[in-house]
Amino acid sequence: MNIRAVILVAVGLFLAFVLEHLPMPDLLLWLQPAWVLLLVTLLVMHAPHTFGLWLAIPLGLMLDVEHNSLLGMHVLTLAVHIFILQLLYRRMAMFNFLQQTAVVFLLVVLQQLLTYWAVALVSENSGPVSLWIPSLSSALVWPWVYALTHMALARLHLS
Amino acid sequence: MPNYQRQRVSGIVILALALMWLDSHAPWLQSVRYMTGYLLAPAQQVALVPSVLGNWFGESSASRQELTNENKQLTARNLVLELRAQRLAALEAENIELRELLSASEQVDDRVLVTAVVAVDPDPFSQQILINKGGEDGVFIGQPVLDAYGLLGQVIDVMPYSARVLMIADSNHAIPVQVNRNGVRAIAVGTGALNELELIYVPNTADIVPGDLLVSSGLGGRYPRGYPVATVNKVENIPGKSFAAVTAEPSAHLDRSRHLLLVFSHGSGQVPPADLWQSAE
What we know:
Chain A contains 7 helices and no strands. By secondary structure, chain A is mainly alpha-helical.
């Protein structure tokens, strides 16, 4: 792993957390894609031997603080996410963008579902949530993010 | 898929579950949270740049006419407030004197810190906001937060440069209040709607009428005494039930205020120990 790749990953992480925190009007907030999750998906797909399950611990803790959820909740969902990706990444590389989008949609739905269960287990007041809206927006954003990363990687001669 | 990978994922899942359990039962993971806040701070600062720029642009592009008008209004308001402050000084002196006569503890003026709202929690079932002052400015968990019109809520999570405030309208929030007119005590519980609080355990015979101002009683030890909380807007005596249904409207502008005050008053914001009730028995 060379220095340019390290810088690219660091910039990507920073951007993902900026986007995750971006204040938006109430209505749009429901639509906010799961940026950090998308970034993790990219990292695991491109360098599955460097970015493994360990990634879930620091990023999960940071997401927990960002969203003020119980410490460990996002560690759990990220670990499950990365585990499934490790089973899938070879196939994902072969998929066309529609199939990839569908997989990302399902993965984000799964993460939302796990979060919802954890919240319901720990606290009593769990209102109905629109689980699928962020999943949909994440899935819609995915092809663009994927294409952008490919371009960046090609430009930096890293692919 | 090699076997050790499965062991690893189960290991992390168990670790995460243990963390969640610990976080909901023990307070000492608070420092981990705070330290992680340092990692997040740069990204959060950058994310706020658009809204800060927007505000700055809005302010700097206000017309001369608007500014003059605003200035006039502020000057007039300032005069009125100064007039009241003069009276207040005399009253406070008199109050301290009377308290000394009663040999009660002297009530010192509260120190405040001005802060701005930077984000609102999108979850419609929790009424929380994010403010731009944090642990580095001395903000602490349990600190009371006010706006210009009354009590707004309390700090529930502190990060280095920001903090999360639970508003009094949240359905998980309750605040001890008393009627300003006659001192009748009650507990105001949030309903989840921004414009409504509920008074619970109010006897049917209690002297509370619509229009009464409710102020914080300070009995919980969390909020300082005497700040306006809400105005009663409906009192309903239901025959056959032992408690009256009383609703009140918060005095603070929960959905509009941009600038808030953090209060550093003596003895406020203290969390009563969890075993308070056992030790009392």
